[in-house]
Amino acid sequence: MAKIIGGITSSHIPAVGNAIANNLQQEPYWKRFFDGYKPAQAWLEQHKPDVAIVVYNDHGLNFFLDKVPTFALGCADKYENADEGWALKPVAPFKGDAAFSWHIAEKLVEQEIDICTCQEMLVDHGFVNPIRALYGTHEVWPVTTIPLAVNTVQHPVPTALRCYKLGQALRHAVESYEEDLKVVVFGTGGMSHQLQGERAGLIDVEFDLETMDRIASDPEWLTKFSNSEIMRRAGTEGIETIMWLVMRGALQSNVKVVHKHYHAPISNTGSGVLVLENTL
User: How many C-beta atoms lie closer than 10 Å to residue 22's C-beta?
Assistant: First the structure.
């Protein structure tokens, strides 16, 4: 059967794609940020997952403010990247697995998780940049991908607890698939940042570091926060960190912390990388 071997967290800052496209990874501003991904890259190279389920938020490429599903799952065999600024050339299409996606969708609905299914889906920087940071850039990507979009843009957005429960349901959905597949779950977004208003540029390092520790050891800690409380501490866009709980809910209760790295500021954002491994 399919098996989730671990999870990785990553920022999806738009400027990351620009830095990669212009080979700026070892420039002083970017070096420590990208160096923090090297142990995660090594872990992926060692374990070679077949499928990456990428939990991210769409930034208007598929869903505009008039229609925003709470959760949306890609159910296609290919996902195209569309131009989203910076004059960047879209990267090569990503290979999907429609059969596996439909299985996941059916099993999520059976567990009373209402999921929007997308037979066509464009992917933006929220999906693309974590993959490029972890795998580099390829004409043929070394992993099959499944996009799982979470609304963190148009309120009301799901609670941290709801995202954690989605992850738990996702684990059961994956593990009920008969094909032998090694699956990794990417939780993207965050950490603390705010893009507008009087608090624009807010970064709460203390809250970010505690969140990283608790996601690994005590994820239910974050589920007790309301969205307002999270945004008060982490900023309006810091709410994206609830997507990490989808990844964490998909893992076993006790995980091995393979790697932990935090860097701030990068593009006015706190950025954390976690590599968590299932040990059973």
Answer: 12
Closest of 266, 258, 268 to residue 38, by C-alpha: 258
Q: What letter represents residue 39's amino acid?
A: P
CA–CA distance, 39 with 193 (Å, rounded to integer): 25
Tokens standing for residue 115:
């999921």
Mean pLDDT of 259-263: 98
Would you call 266 helix, strand, or coil by DSSP?
Answer: coil
Distance CA 51, CA 45 (A): 13
Q: Residue 220 corresponds to which tokens in the numbers above?
A: 């239910």
The Cα angle at residue 60 between residues 190 and 120, in degrees rounded to 5: 110
Q: Where are the domains of the chain?
A: 3-278
What residues are annotated to the active site?
125, 193
Mean pLDDT of the chain: 96
Sign of the torsion formed by the C-alpha atoms of 151, 152, 156 and 158: positive
| Segment holding 230, helix H or strand E | helix 227-234
The pLDDT of residue 280: 77
CATH of 3-278, one of 1.10.357.10, 3.30.70.1450, 3.40.830.10, 3.30.70.20: 3.40.830.10
**Which among 183, 175, 184, 160 is positioned nearest to 246, based on CA atoms?**
160
* Structural tokens at position 239: 């709410």
Residues 44-72: what's their mean pLDDT? Answer: 96
